[in-house]
Design a protein that fits this description.
Helix content: 10-25%
Number of strands: 15
Radius of gyration: 20 Å
Distance between the termini: 36 Å
Order of helices and strands: EEEEHEEHHEHEEEEHEHHEEHE
Structural class: alpha+beta
Shape: globular
Number of helices: 8
Strand content: 25-35%
Strand order of the largest sheet: 5-3-15-12-11-10
Largest sheet: 6 strands, mixed
Length: 337
């Protein structure tokens, strides 16, 4: 487990913009609860089924543990093939019920099944239980440092993450679903932040929780400064050669601002833009005249440049509203309770 007493970047004087909430976390949005289960065991050479194990699962409850009222939601995928169960429900109805789960790529199935089992045992209203039948489970690949094919996540780990979720400060770094993730060749994982936003109709909170797993060290920017390129960091993580190109990033924004589903989907498109601005170093031309920069997806997204030979990270964003002020035909389907 990481030392959660370590200062965060803003505490060290890094000049990030905006006014954070009291916790600078997704839990600044009222009602949101987060739970982690972290599995760390073994050292040395990989033995499938034995370890080393560096993985976990994270649960995000939009309305608190066991809340059965649905939330308005939108889904936006910048690119990639990462899995997110429950996505069709969100795209069709603009809403979902239950938690959002984050884990590793090869544990999506067991996590999905365990959420249904948890709901079966905890939701007595059979009509409400039906809406837990398509859980939202997203993934990133942790097989660089984890025995992914050992599939060490078990239902009891999912149950614990669901039951132990809470508001308040959120553990970050190598915890929960982010345990085995790497970012810019440093240790990556779970991160969270929030901002207070003033609008004509009032002041609202936008929070986000990400499972971060992307980037080369020379691409690292900190508050716009290309420190990775400038200081010539060299990676000290051993990445298995056939896996080193696989990168994913999952973002889960939440807000108490009044969004309808179409606005939610379009609104969350801003997070990949922020991710693009905060991460990769400026582009530069190679000797062949091609641009070399963060990833093919972001070059295509920002400047239209899409060179061959570079695999893109998968970037998925699921945003949800903790209030539902917007009347819609499906409102009875996910009625607030």
């Amino acid at each position: 487990m990481p030392d959660q007493t370590k200062p965060r970047a803003r505490d060290l004087g890094v000049p990030f913009s905006g006014m954070p909430g009291p916790l600078n976390a997704i839990t600044d949005v009222a009602g949101v609860a987060v739970g982690h289960v972290t599995l760390i065991a073994g050292e040395g050479k990989l033995e499938v089924g034995q370890g080393p194990v560096r993985t976990g699962v994270t649960a995000v409850w939009p309305r608190g543990i066991g809340a059965i009222g649905g939330v308005q939601a939108g889904l936006f995928a910048l690119n990639g093939v990462g899995e997110m169960t429950g996505a069709h429900l969100i795209e069709e109805f603009g809403a979902f019920a239950g938690p959002v789960m984050l884990t590793n790529t090869l544990s999506v199935g067991v996590v999905r099944d365990a959420v249904i089992t948890w709901a079966r045992d905890h939701v007595p209203d059979k009509e409400a239980l039906f809406y837990f039948s398509l859980p939202v489970v997203a993934e990133t690949w942790d097989g660089n440092i984890n025995d992914a094919y050992g599939q060490h996540i078990q239902p009891q780990h999912v149950f614990a993450a669901l039951d132990n979720a809470a508001g308040g400060p959120v553990a970050e770094g190598g915890v929960g679903g982010g345990t085995g993730m790497s970012t810019f060749d440093f240790k990556g994982g779970i991160g969270t932040a929030s901002r207070r936003v003033a609008m004509p109709m009032g002041e609202y909170t936008v929070g986000v929780l990400v499972q971060s797993n992307f980037g080369r060290r020379d691409q690292l920017l900190v508050a716009g400064v290309p420190v990775g390129e400038k200081y010539g960091f060299t990676a000290d993580i051993v990445i298995r050669p056939y896996l080193k190109q696989f990168h994913h990033h999952i973002g889960g924004p939440a807000t108490d601002a009044p969004f309808c589903p179409p606005a939610s989907s379009s609104g969350w498109r801003g997070e990949p833009r922020a991710w693009a601005a905060a991460g990769p170093a400026p582009q530069k031309k190679t000797r062949t005249g091609q641009h070399q920069g963060p990833s093919s997806s972001l070059r295509r997204y920002i400047s239209g440049v899409f060179p061959a030979g570079v695999l893109s990270p998968a970037i998925y964003h699921l945003g949800f509203d903790v209030i539902r002020p917007c009347p819609m035909p499906t409102s009875d389907l996910f009625s607030m309770r």
